[in-house]
Design a protein that fits this description.
With 212 residues, the chain is α+β, with helices and mostly antiparallel strands. The chain folds into 2 domains: 6-94, Phosphorylase Kinase, domain 1 (2-Layer Sandwich); 98-211, Transferase(Phosphotransferase) domain 1 (Transferase(Phosphotransferase), domain 1). Helices cover 27% and strands 20% of the residues. The strands form 3 sheets. Strands 1, 2, 3, 4, 5 and 6 form a 6-stranded antiparallel β-sheet that branches. A 3-stranded antiparallel β-sheet has the order 7-9-10. It has a two-stranded antiparallel ribbon with strand order 8-11. Strand 9 (143-146) and strand 10 form a beta hairpin. The longest helix has 20 residues, at 111-130. It is globular, with a radius of gyration of 17 Å.
């Protein structure tokens, strides 16, 4: 197994365009048997210790949320090694055959479509909160709409917070969290405690509703 591609023992990378955000890229992969597809998530700056720790925490969060409809399942990962820097970190997530809300809807939605999507999103967020997880980065780019079924998915828990995690990252103390879609005052406060209020997720959901 090449050290530079630790996922290759199980996954073949498809020849498709990469997607992602400011801190990561996602590539379509298929298992060696050709039976399962997934999304291979890699850090753009793999040597950054905080981002490696965040990816490891995201896996913990997603595993805690296992079985919640609309949350992708973790198929494979090596994030237990996040502190060693021996090999690039990776996560393979359940493949979602859809596009982000920002890609899918380029014009205003009908009130019926907006309400339908928001109700699904509220149910996902409710179940996340029941399991003690705040997302903190809900925005159209992190909401996927599955083609055909119009099923809604919530992705990217990179700055999510599990309520039993008492050790904040440095960014939770000194830097702004959240996103540019809807900037919430509590998420750029110097007080880490204020950045862990689940009600912030509800405000972000309302922002999504009124955006479309």
């Amino acid at each position: 197994m090449p050290e530079t591609e630790p996922w290759s023992y199980r996954w073949n990378v498809a020849n498709t365009p990469r997607k992602g955000g400011n801190q990561f890229v996602v590539q379509l992969v298929q298992d060696l048997e050709g039976t399962t597809r997934g999304g291979l998530k890699l850090l753009k700056e793999d040597s950054n210790s905080e981002r490696r720790a965040r990816l490891a925490r995201e896996v913990i969060i997603l595993q805690r949320l296992g079985g919640v409809p609309g949350i992708p399942v973790v198929l494979d990962h090596n994030t237990a090694n996040h502190g060693t820097k021996i090999a690039p970190l990776y996560v393979v997530l359940e493949f979602i055959d859809g596009v982000s809300l920002s890609e899918h809807f380029q014009s205003a939605l009908s009130i019926d479509d907006s309400v339908r999507i928001t109700i699904q999103l509220c149910e996902i967020v409710r179940l996340c909160h029941e399991r003690g997880v705040a997302h903190r980065d809900i925005k159209p780019d992190n909401i996927m709409v599955q083609g055909g079924s119009e099923k809604v998915w919530l992705i990217d828990f990179g700055i999510g917070w599990p309520e039993d995690d008492a050790d904040p990252f440095e960014t939770e103390i000194n830097q702004e969290l959240g996103n540019r879609f809807l900037r919430l005052p509590e998420l750029h406060s110097p007080d880490a405690t204020g950045k862990r209020d689940q009600r912030s997720d509800l405000t972000l959901v309302c922002g999504v509703l009124f955006c479309f």
